[in-house]
Amino acid sequence: MKNVIKSVLLASLLAISVAAVAQGQGQGRGQGGGRGGQFGMQGRGGMMGGPSALVNRADVQEDLKLTAAQKESLTKLREKQQEDQRAMMENLRNSGGGGGFDREAMTKMIQENQAKNEKAVNEILTAEQQKRLKEIWVQLQGNRAIMDAKIQDELGFDQGQKDAVKALQAKQQEAAMSLMEKMRNQEIDREQMTEISRKNDEVMLAELGKIMKEDQAAKLKAMGGAPFKAAPQQGRGGGGGGG
């Protein structure tokens, strides 16, 4: 049983990591996510690498007005990230020979990797582009943006609100694990899993919206800046492995 759980967790991590390295392909569904934003994000993985996870999307690059040199630098960075991800996954697969798995260590590894990627991307972008990238990310995340600790601080969340977000995140992870287990056991097919995930995501977005006070919801919406026009094939794609 432990080996099964470890395999499922690794699958989840792989989905999240690949999605982040792919720089946000298919994020953002372009529909309301409750009180906190204009856009929701379908996905099973949460933050999906933060703002830097969007920077290789063609529509985002067009909005940011990237130069040819910046695009070339980002392509090289993505290739290096892919190599790092493969090495990280291999290390995780070979860890805990007895089937044990440290979820906290996995989460920490993801967070450290995301921070590293964000720093590398910011070294390529101008300050103005970094600001706009964050605005686009907030729009595409909608209420999910408040799962980010920095956003929580900017909105002035109290400890009760932060705890409420954590509780919802844990519930979402448990639901995702349950779905993958059912998929593995052939109790549901991929189409059913996708539909259930979509409905779970809608509930999650609505519940996250309820955590915010009215002024916080308004501030989050303002943090999205000018409307972002997502390309149809990316703005309405099925969300990747997460956030």
Describe this structure in words.
The two termini are 27 Å apart. This protein has helices at 2-21, 58-64, 68-94, 103-122, 127-141, 149-155, 159-184, 190-211, 214-223, 232-235. With 243 residues, the protein is mainly α. The chain has one domain.
What is the strand and helix layout of this fold?
Blueprint: H1 2-21, H2 58-64, H3 68-94, H4 103-122, H5 127-141, H6 149-155, H7 159-184, H8 190-211, H9 214-223, H10 232-235
Helix pairs in contact: 1-3, 1-4, 3-4, 7-8
Features:
243 residues
Task: Kindly summarize this structure in a few lines.
This protein is an all-alpha fold and 243 residues long. The chain is 65% helix and 0% strand.
Number of domains: 1
Would you tell me the structural class of the helices and strands? mainly alpha
- Assembly context of the chains: single chain
- Arithmetic mean of pLDDT: 78
Tell me what portion of residues adopts beta-strand conformation.
under 5%
Largest sheet entry: none
Contiguous uncertain segments of 5+ residues: 14-47, 235-243
Helix content: 55-70%
H/I helix tally: 10
Overall 3D geometry? globular
- Report how far apart the termini are: 27 Å
Total beta strand runs: 0
Instruction: Give helix and strand order, one letter per element, not per position.
Output: HHHHHHHHHH
What is the gyration radius calculated from CA atoms? 18 Å
